[in-house]
Amino acid sequence: PDPVDIPELAERIESLAIERSANVQGRVLIVEDDAELAEHYCLVLQAAGIEAQAVSEPLHLMASLADFEPDIVLMDVQIGDYSGVTLARLIRFEPRWLSLPIIYLSSEDDPENQLEALSKGADEFLMKPVSDSYLVRSVRIRCFRARQLSELMNRDSLTGLLKHSLIKEEVEKELARCRRSGYRSCVVMLDLDHFKTVNDTWGHSQGDIVIRTLANLLRNRLRETDMIGRYGGEEFLVVLPQCEVSSATELIRGIGESFSELSFVAGESSYQVTLSAGIAAINDFTNGEDALNAADQALYERKRSGRNGVTV
Ligand code: GH3
Ligand code: MG
Ligand code: MG
Ligand code: MG
Ligand code: MG
Predict the structure, then answer these.
(1) Which atom in ligand 1 lies closest to the alpha carbon of residue 233?
(2) Is residue 136 within 8 Å of 44, Cβ to Cβ?
(3) Residues 233-254: b if buried by 16+ CB within 10 A, e if exposed
(4) What is the pLDDT along the chain (312 residues), one digit of tens a residue?
(5) ipTM, two decimals
(6) C-alpha distances out from residue 241 to 64, 167, 176, 229, 285, Å
(7) H-only helix segments in 4-122
(8) Nearest ligand, measured from the Cα of 38
(9) Model pTM?
(10) Cα angle: 54, vertex 58, 59; to 5 degrees
(11) Do the beta carbons of residue 57 and residue 68 sit within 8 Å?
């Protein structure tokens, strides 16, 4: 084979990465008590298509984080009576924000002081004064990187679907959206039938193929706005926004039929797998947990009454 042209390859990868980071619409929370400066940063970033929000009051910091869900935080070193180092520690205290990049915007050039700040949970320094164009470009790159990493953390590695805790959160969020906007949505729990037999008969790696195939089928057949997660081993959880129970039932029944018609090939043999599903209308419940339990109960009924199908 031809030897790899490393410089050329590196150049191609580089240009791809830059192209992709140019498309990222990042979200930046600016923690800055100088109102004029905060507004300047916000405007510069917003003009470049980046969503930016400023917080000047340390007491509002945690609420702003939860509401805005930024990709990165730009932190002043001194905010009122508080040091940025203290605020970084506060942010890191919450497990949810352990991996959130915190970047100090600072004129601190004493390496010892910088190290002290880094040791308290910040990730790096951006030296003030920073030019508008450098700010935009470096923020864009950092948001791109932050999103790559959070994708990696939030996605199940076998299927690329949302992990358990993330999809569970989506049920709760969807219920809140239903309340605000008045539309109706469904939650669906799916489970492969007799999957233990698939593993026992055809082997675990065949089982993995079956799981991945169902994940791809769901991705292909559902809408861009539907949310799909791998709830457990061979269990999937789907949130269907703005969808009546009747349409959800029809949709999932169709997917189940398509799935049951697939032939999985193992050496000279082939086999089929079916799935069972339980559906609940999110709106009928006062919290996401209850909606989930109802879908789970419906799934259980379906398993008891013969599998391969949908129960509401
Ligand atoms: P039922 O129709 O009642 O759902 O029966 P089942 O055999 O599908 O259910 P059970 O809960 O008894 O078994 C599920 C099996 O799924 C057991 C477990 O080894 C297997 N499993 C879980 N995660 C994975 C995975 O990532 N890959 C593979 N290949 N198998 C998995
Ligand atoms: Mg300040
Ligand atoms: Mg089971
Ligand atoms: Mg099963
Ligand atoms: Mg199961």
Answers:
(1) 23
(2) yes
(3) ebbbbbbbbbbebeebbebbee
(4) 566 677 777 777 666 665 555 566 799 999 999 999 999 999 999 999 999 999 999 999 999 999 999 999 999 988 989 988 899 999 999 988 988 999 998 887 888 888 888 888 888 888 888 999 999 999 999 999 998 888 888 899 999 999 999 999 999 999 999 999 999 999 999 999 999 999 999 999 999 999 999 999 999 999 999 999 999 999 999 999 999 999 999 999 999 999 999 999 999 999 999 999 999 999 999 999 999 999 999 999 999 999 999 999
(5) 0.95
(6) 26, 13, 11, 14, 15
(7) 6-23, 35-47, 61-68, 84-92, 111-119
(8) 2
(9) 0.76
(10) 115
(11) no
Nearest CA to ligand 1 atom 30: 207
Neighbouring CB atoms inside 10 A of 200's CB total 11
Neighbours of 203 (CB within 10 A): 12
- 212 within 8 A of 198, measured Cβ to Cβ: no
1 membership: H or E segment, kind and range: none
* Residues 188, 32: Cα–Cα separation, whole Å: 44
Cα 195 to averaged position of ligand 3 atoms, centre (Å): 8
Cα–Cα distance for residue pair 132/82, rounded to 1 Å: 26
Look at residues 252, 242, 233 and name the one whose alpha carbon lies nearest to residue 295.
252
| CB-CB contact of 236 with 299 (8 Å) | no
Q: In what order do the strands lie in the sheet with 27-31?
A: 51-55, 27-31, 72-76, 102-106, 124-127
Q: pLDDT for 72-129, tens place per residue?
A: 999 998 898 998 889 999 999 998 898 899 999 888 788 888 888 888 888 888 888 8
Burial of 98 per CB tally in 10 Å (0-12, 13-18, 19+): exposed
**What are the angstrom distances between the C-alpha of 283 and each of 171, 185, 212, 272?**
11, 7, 30, 35
Q: Rounded to the nearest whole angstrom, what is the distance from the C-alpha of residue 291 to the centroid of ligand 2?
A: 46
* Whether 188 contacts 254, CB under 8 Å: no
**What residues act catalytically?**
234
